[in-house]
Automatic annotation (TrEMBL), chains A, B:
Similarity field: Belongs to the RuBisCO large chain family.
The Ribulose bisphosphate carboxylase large subunit C-terminal domain, residue ranges: 140-420
SUPFAM superfamilies recorded: RuBisCo, C-terminal domain (SSF51649), RuBisCO, large subunit, small (N-terminal) domain (SSF54966)
UniProt KW keywords: Lyase, Magnesium, Metal-binding
Domain Ribulose bisphosphate carboxylase large subunit ferrodoxin-like N-terminal, chain residue ranges per copy: 4-129
CDD domains: RLP_NonPhot
Enzyme class: lyase
Name of protein: Ribulose-bisphosphate carboxylase large chain
GO terms of biological process kind: carbon fixation
């Protein structure tokens, strides 16, 4: 039987020959020592050393992307090679443990002097991780079942202003949004349990509105209640959401960490909306950190059901090809059958309007997503209900393969939206 | 009564006028919305908006440090200004919650298009956080009490090779090290509970050696057992360490997250050695992420007792001034009396030898630190015991204000170390 291995891909920049640089990475993150010690036998290296699986050179850059590396005194040769390097480790080095995986694939590597750039771009994990991690509990199908939305994106929005509304004022905002016809509403990531808007009071007030609306219409809007906090707080808040008839919880992934997410997932009876705020710190530099492709795999295993991928022509720095690659990855199985694939719902947001429906559908090739708009709904000239109708019309057109301008001829709300949200 | 506020300092790079850029930061992380909504009243802004406390311009740079920002279509003016910006928030926005603090001070900020660089460099928190977080349980004094080491650095070392030793082979390494006279030994961050070296078996084997040595000599060496894992695992492993007479636990901070650390601290009866592996991802870029100064404050509140600061002339990329600033910060109170200061022990490591004792002492101005050496002990020509003696002699000389070369005249181990570990 072949031992299960963990594989990680990096993009590096180095002033050393590539085979030497890759060997440094492998050594530092497994059996290597600066000074050879007696215990480091050949058998030990054979069984536990990380392996360099592939090196693909990209060409040189003129100047180092990060400081502190490859100086003449450290032996660099002045060139700055870029390359993709693939390493693998035997699972027996760390076992199927996400926290310890992280120390191995993303620990001290990025501080090594041999590298003026080092970014983790992908990981491939053996299914043994599914013995210890539950993966998403609801995913695409479970979220569709709870929202009652099929064959089109789940249209979402966020409560604004982010901070400052009282529980009752929040519920009033929610009333406007559910009456406008949205499928999904989320708290802002800045709003969790601040003294001016306590979690329990906010959720109680908001769920009264959502439950009343569901009683009248038969449609229960999904509300992602931001329960980010310490572990005991999150578990108690989850129970409060359940007790009030809520159908979703939200947590900021970077704020809580993988072990807390695992614990929340084990406890939860609701889908987990994983908010990626802070990912820019890890992901924005091309020379450092971690791609969202690698990052989201860790959190899917830990149990999230939805995550944010930004949106086409977003108001942040992320380019469209990166947004779409992230979104497609969320829908791509992590493991082959018979194992679960851990697919989750990508959430498009940030400056989204009727203009982004067609290009998003064309690039994603699927309607399995959330499409969240703030101003795109609230700032519609005909009001929020017209804003929601316009978004649905834009997606209907995209799915039917019709140009949005053509569709607008028969859809006054869409026409007004195209006028309001400039091309 | 003045409301307690949270203050955060950033270094930014922007193609927009600085007052506009700072207002964008404050707006995005508090009451701001891209489209003004009805709920955003003047009263709400007055009570909850983040405040720009200070802007200090540094001058322009030629090219953007990060991509995706300030393009002509986004309204940038072509200049790239660098500046320090200080923002503050009322505590009532998020309450004294570290996870929610993180979403506020380090959430989506670094992805904003207005910035081609944005790094969090410091935070100042109100003492209300001490109502919810316990801070270090042992700190400097408690660690000295458990090790029995006073008036000099605690001399430490790490078990190598990092990965691959069985529990018994690990214990044999520990035997060599305790007999050599070290005060402190730590697991490698790659070694936690892998199938080839299970935690429980390793700790039992290692503690037999340490307990035997303590019975014979009266000196109990502190062993930082790396219990990094999921929450239930960490709590159980802590209990196993206690049951085996251990006096320290270690966890990789980035792997476990703040809520898990809080839970571990609440449960723990032992000092927590906080390992910062992976910090390079957050800290190495001058244009992105978080300084260690800001970072370590979060973890001190959450409850660590020791943390790594690299070392002078280390084998990683960090410059010496950054190393020393981090170390001094660990010893600087976070809160004024009567509140606890949450001081912790800085751990110097990475390529440390007798050569670094004097410059480290001169720069730190204190002996309240751990000084960890691997090769500097194991590769001493006279063996590990001579290696430990040489390190202690080097520190004795530094504390006495004597030049190391002078002190070596009366100290054969120090003389041999100076020969072996070139200047």
């Amino acid at each position: 039987m072949t031992e299960q291995r963990i594989t990680a891909t990096y993009e590096i920049e180095t002033a050393f020959p590539l085979d030497q640089a890759a060997a440094t990475m492998a050594g530092e993150q497994s059996t290597g020592t600066f000074v050879r010690v007696p215990g480091e036998t050949d058998e030990l290296r054979e069984a536990h050393a990380a392996r360099v699986e592939a090196i693909e050179e990209f060409g040189d850059v003129a100047a180092p992307s990060l400081p502190g590396s490859g100086l003449p005194k450290d032996g660099g040769d002045g060139r700055r090679r870029r390359a993709r390097v693939v390493l693998s480790w035997p699972l027996s080095n760390m076992g199927p443990s996400l926290p310890n995986l992280l120390a191995t694939i993303a620990g001290n590597l990025s501080e090594l002097k041999a590298f003026s750039g080092l970014k983790l771009t992908d990981i491939v994990l053996p299914p043994a991780f599914l013995d210890r991690y539950q993966g998403p509990q609801f995913g695409v199908e479970g979220t569709r079942r709870l929202t009652g939305v099929y064959d089109r994106p789940i249209v979402g929005t966020i409560i604004k202003p982010s901070v400052g509304l009282s529980p009752d004022a929040t519920a009033e905002q929610v009333r406007v949004l559910v009456e406008a016809g949205v499928d999904f509403i989320k708290d802002d990531e800045l709003q969790a349990d601040g003294p001016h808007c306590p979690f329990d009071a906010r959720i109680a007030a908001v769920m009264r509105v959502i439950n009343d609306h569901a009683d009248r219409t038969g449609r229960k809007v999904m509300y992602a209640a931001n329960l980010t906090g310490d572990v005991d707080e999150m578990l108690a808040r989850h129970d409060h959401v359940v007790a009030n008839g809520g159908t979703c919880i939200m947590a900021s992934m970077n704020s809580i960490g993988l072990p807390a997410m695992k614990q929340l997932r084990a406890h939860s009876r609701l889908p987990i909306h994983g908010h990626r705020n802070g990912w820019g710190m890890l992901g924005r530099s091309p020379a450092l950190g971690m791609s969202f492709i690698a990052y989201q795999k860790l959190w899917r295993l830990a149990g999230i059901d939805h995550t944010h991928v930004n949106g086409i022509d977003n108001k942040f720095c992320e380019p469209n090809d990166s947004v779409i690659a992230s979104a497609r990855e969320c829908l791509t199985p992590m493991f082959d059958p018979p194992h679960q694939g851990c697919e989750i719902i990508p959430v498009f947001s940030s400056g989204q309007s009727v203009r982004q429906a067609a290009p998003t559908y064309a690039a994603l090739g699927s309607v399995d997503c959330m499409f969240a708009a703030g101003g795109g709904i609230m700032a519609h000239p005909g009001g929020p209900a017209a804003g929601v109708r316009a978004l649905r019309q834009a997606w209907d057109a995209a799915i039917a393969g019709a140009a949005v301008e053509e569709a607008a001829k028969d859809s006054p709300e869409l026409k007004a939206a195209l006028g309001a949200f400039g091309g």
